[in-house]
């Protein structure tokens, strides 16, 4: 897979959300996903508008539960931006409860995530029932799920047999699980005779920074080159490396940083193909 283009993989991929993601990455020449972790609704929309409007990001990762004074009309504006600028929405919800509860959290409440987020993710900790619960809501809508097989944080418990079980769970639900949040490729993990040679599990990787190796709360950063070229991952997820740490979002600086990360991610991919 690390030798195939995103476009070739899009043609072969059976899941609609994964296909759309791969096609858009190819079309926009961007394997950058900007994680828009800002709390003001206007900063949230401005950052997305500026990075996606100039074609450098795809998809946008959201955390709608951190937005102050959440108003459902924000979702209409986000959806309009996603159509206008051609990007997918990935709500980084990290579901972690029993099947019945996650199905309700995904479909209902104030946020109704399934109705607007093309991709979401879940911790494998409850076992396969978390997938069954989310799939009952998301599959009919053409959505895709990522499992957190690994985390970027220091001391993460998602290693070894936990990661292996996550991969087995994904394989058993390949109609809905399109890949992982992880730090490396997963094809060789827990492989056996029944594993299909055609499987294409996407790897979206957070913990990416060009200027720093971590933060004071356990986050660890690697460069786009380490993630895409050396570890063979598919998408870099970048938050503070793009919009900075201050509460004032400087839209021009955001645009410049997004373009820097987009270029670094794409160059690493081109080197990988070569
Ligand atoms: N994220 C991680 N590591 C993981 C999983 N998810 O950092 O293992 C998410 C965080 C944040 C983003 O919730 O939204 O990726 C990374 O942000 P940063 O680039 O500002 O550190």
Automatic annotation (TrEMBL):
Q: Which reaction does it catalyse?
A: orotidine 5'-phosphate + H(+) = UMP + CO2
Give the pathway listed in the UniProt entry for this protein. Pyrimidine metabolism; UMP biosynthesis via de novo pathway; UMP from orotate: step 2/2
* Enzyme category, top tier: lyase
For the ligand (substrate), the binding residues are 37, 152, 219, 239-240
Query: Does the UniProt entry include the keyword Endoplasmic reticulum?
Result: no
Enzyme Commission code(s) on record: 4.1.1.23
Q: Which GO terms describe its biological process?
A: 'de novo' pyrimidine nucleobase biosynthetic process; 'de novo' UMP biosynthetic process
One Gene Ontology term of the molecular function aspect: orotidine-5'-phosphate decarboxylase activity
Q: Which Gene3D superfamilies does the entry link to?
A: Aldolase class I
Matching InterPro entries, A to Z? Aldolase_TIM, OMPdecase, OMPdecase_AS, OMPdeCOase_dom, RibuloseP-bd_barrel
What's the superkingdom here?
Eukaryota
Specify one Pfam family. OMPdecase
Family in the record:
Belongs to the OMP decarboxylase family.
NCBIfam families linked: pyrF (TIGR01740)
- Descriptive protein name: Orotidine 5'-phosphate decarboxylase
């Amino acid at each position: 897979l690390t030798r195939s283009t995103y476009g070739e993989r899009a043609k072969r991929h059976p899941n609609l959300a994964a296909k759309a993601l791969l096609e858009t990455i190819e079309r926009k020449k961007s394997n950058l996903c900007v994680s828009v972790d800002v709390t003001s609704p206007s900063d949230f929309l401005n950052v997305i508008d500026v990075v996606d409007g100039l074609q450098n990001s795809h998809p946008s990762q959201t955390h709608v539960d951190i937005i102050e004074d959440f108003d459902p009309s924000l979702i209409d504006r986000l959806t309009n931006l996603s159509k206008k600028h051609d990007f997918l929405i990935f709500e980084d919800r990290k579901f972690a409860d029993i099947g019945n509860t996650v199905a309700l959290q995904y479909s209902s409440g104030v946020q109704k995530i399934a109705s607007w987020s093309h991709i979401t993710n879940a911790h494998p900790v409850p076992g396969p029932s978390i997938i069954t619960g989310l799939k009952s809501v998301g599959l009919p809508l053409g959505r895709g799920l990522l499992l957190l097989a690994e985390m970027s944080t220091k001391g993460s418990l998602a290693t070894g047999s936990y990661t292996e079980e996550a991969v087995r769970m994904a394989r058993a639900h390949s109609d809905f699980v399109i890949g992982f949040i992880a730090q490396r490729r997963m094809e060789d993990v827990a492989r056996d005779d029944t594993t299909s040679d055609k499987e294409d599990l996407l790897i979206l990787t957070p913990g990416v920074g060009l200027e720093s190796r971590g933060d004071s709360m356990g986050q660890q950063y690697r460069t786009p080159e380490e993630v895409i070229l050396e570890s063979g991952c598919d998408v870099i997820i970048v938050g503070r490396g793009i919009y900075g740490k201050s509460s004032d979002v400087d839209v021009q600086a955001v645009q410049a940083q997004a373009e820097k990360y987009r270029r670094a991610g794409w160059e690493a991919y081109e080197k990988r193909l070569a």
